[in-house]
Amino acid sequence: MGHKDFKDEVVIVTGAGKGIGKEIAFTYAEHGAWVVIADKDIESARAVEESIIAKGQKAVFIETDVSREESVRALIGEVKTKYSRINILINNAGISKCCSPYELRLDDWDNIINTNLRSVYLCTREAATVMKNNGGGCVVNIASTRALMSEPNTEAYAASKGGIIALTHALAASLANDNIRVNAISPGWIETEDYESLREIDHSQHFSKRVGKPSDIARACLYLTEAGNEFVTGTNIVIDGGMTKKMIYEA
């Protein structure tokens, strides 16, 4: 069990049914928060909710499609009705598709941008209307090191994550007077499935000598949303084992 330093705070985590979002939800629950699991994957999200409750912790699943404005408004409305407040929003939901720019269809582009980027604006806008009436709050947006560097055929994903970083500091400026802090985290390689199957070369190429885990990102969320860290806002924290600082030359 974690320390109860987020006791009874209301924390919304989008895309909390799997991967990084799942670990973030577990972490806040361990620290005493009421965790709202916002996801459209009903089966996975229900499993996370049940796992948290089975530990004697607090969680509720609200089916949400973050790419749709009406679904986001329904989410925030339900949370406001149930808890009367929102303390923390973690904008984690995201999708990707690897596809040549010559072949990427516009509807796929729109789906990725709407799910990954527009959702950050929608969720933050709606949550902020509740936060500002309750003394403020914190928003953490999960971006990616793909905002800073790329592999081929990732245009839509890279654009969405780059947009998140820009949107983060814009929102931090706009919401500052309402005592709402907005920050971003850019994860590098975070293994969310079979960590034991990773090879030594996978680990050793990092300055940290290991591939990242979802818990690395969850702990950063705690830092960015702790009450004593009010001086941290508008920033993007890269958590990638040092990979974006590594020079790589062909021999």
List the helices and strands and how they pair.
Blueprint: E1 10-14, H1 19-30, E2 34-39, H2 42-54, E3 58-63, H3 69-83, E4 88-91, H4 106-131, E5 137-142, H5 155-175, E6 180-187, H6 200-204, H7 214-225, E7 236-239
Parallel strand pairs: 1-2, 1-4, 2-3, 4-5, 5-6, 6-7
Helix pairs in contact: 1-7, 3-4, 4-5
Write a compact overview of the structure shown:
The protein is of the alpha/beta class and 251 residues long.
Describe the structure.
- The protein is an alpha/beta fold and 251 residues long.
- The chain has one domain: 3-Layer(aba) Sandwich (Rossmann fold).
- It has seven helices and seven strands; from the N terminus they run E-H-E-H-E-H-E-H-E-H-E-H-H-E.
- The protein has a seven-stranded parallel β-sheet, with helices on both faces.
- Helix 1 packs across helix 7, helix 3 packs parallel to helix 4 and helix 4 packs parallel to helix 5.
- The radius of gyration is 18 Å and the shape is globular.
